[in-house]
Amino acid sequence: MATFELEKLPLTYTHSLSDSSSAYQPFPSHSHYQKYYHYNLVITDKDQFRNFLLVSLTIILAIIALVLILHFLPHKNKHQGTSINFKLAINHALTFYDAQKSGHYPKNSPVKFRGDSGLGDGKSADTDLVGGFYDSGNNIKFTFTTAYTTTLLSWSVMEYHSKYADLGELQHVRDIIRWGSDYLLKVFILPTSTSKSNLTIYSQVGNTISDKGEPKNDISCWQRPEDMDYARPVSICDSSASDLGGEIVAALSASSMVLKNDTEYSKKLVKAAETLHKLVTSEDPKKQGTYTMVDACGKQARDFYKSSSYKDELAWGGTWLFLATGNLTYLDYATETFKSAKSNESDFDNGAFDWNNKLNAVAVLLTRIRYFRDPGGLYEHALRLSSNSTHSLMCSLLFNDFSRTPGGLIIMKDDNGPLLEYAATASFLSKLYSDYLHHLKFSGAKCKSNVNYILGQNPLKMSYLVGYGDKFPVHVHHRSASIPWDDKKHYSCDGGKKWLNSKDPNLQVLVGAMVGGPDMHDGFIDQRNNSRFTEPNIASNAGLVAALIALSDNSSGLKDSF
């Protein structure tokens, strides 16, 4: 028997701390945590060692052959089609936001079947709420999802700025983020030194519930936003809407970094975020809660975006505010709130990242801070909790702890709801964490399967991104896309319903809209009046955009920062 010894010496760490005060740093050529193993190999019998090498080589070749055989064997859940055109898919997914814009419509928009709309929004509350985005296929504007969308798009730019630039989409996504942040600056009114009023936050424009005196609303009517002739009430909240406040803080903070080339505007966003954060977090803990708990604030939204918790949004907002300012006070708040929120997370929400649950996203952001910024030993315990949480999630995603459809799409929440939103955000977080590991000199994982499914590599060979590929949904649940576009012809609340129930394809292609998608058995019903399958929304599309840009090439792309 060959006699040789392999000695593994102790694991050591090298550590460095940047003197820069900026919290969001470019990825360094070396991280604060780099692992080094040292080995000593002592060979005592060269002939037997040659035999050992031959045997080892034979085993290696056999393994390679087995891998190749398995790779080229037919797989039940593989639905390979043409290669993915990420440049086109990203452009399409961003164009959806151009179609969702409310207010004074840009003349240079690539979407030609839209115009000015909602120019009276906010008048019923004696304020200006013109602008923002329509949430989905209806004409409602939800502040909660607008803020989430703005935050997630901003995050994707912060991480993958160079990729957006290489694809020629950097200015496009910046314009969309600016459209969102402009609106978010309007949705809250800060108390003044002379006023006795509390903080005011406007959570919604539009009506989802028919009043006795007004049966027409944004749900009962099938009407283009340019033709709306019904009341547009405003839902009003105060500082007890902790989740809504935290989400707005996150959006303003994240967008301030993306838009920092406009120095004064960026400072305005940060100042507003800091003031709002102070008001929301200083509220009596007994009064803190979700915005949908109070009728005046969130009754209208309960059937659409009922919030189940608020501490995740407060941690989310605090984390982004730290990244925007470098102020460790916000990191203190974020880490403590994250620990509290994590201890109360339900099994049902565990793993999902969406408009309702930000815990896994916060964990990834805090892990980023631990790996590449390391604020010091005082934060090590709290940040280790976040990195452990992130590692646990990634293991669950990579080792198939979650169920999947027969076609291979991950099922993050077993509630018979749309699946694609969770699949997109899971892909984004997986690829992002993989890129973090790449910069730490670890190997990353391949994370494209869910996005490939969305773009057509599925049992139905259908792209769920409208306008992408040869086969995609043509009966999208969307008022503007289904009703004829004519500046001179206006359709009433009931007059537009003939297009809701029509079996003909939409008259306008809603390019870039990711629809609700298939059920848990890969089935899909392309019917306009079946919103479960065919309705898109701005929050879901944000996750898709983030996943697409993260996966758009084989490099990490994490080279530039703002």
Automatic annotation (TrEMBL):
Residues 87-548 form the Glycoside hydrolase family domain. GO terms for molecular function: cellulase activity. It catalyses: Endohydrolysis of (1->4)-beta-D-glucosidic linkages in cellulose, lichenin and cereal beta-D-glucans. Keywords: Carbohydrate metabolism, Cellulose degradation, Glycosidase, Hydrolase, Membrane, Polysaccharide degradation, Transmembrane, Transmembrane helix. The chain crosses the membrane at residues 52-73. It comes from the Eukaryota. GO terms for biological process: cellulose catabolic process. Belongs to the glycosyl hydrolase 9 (cellulase E) family. This is Endoglucanase.
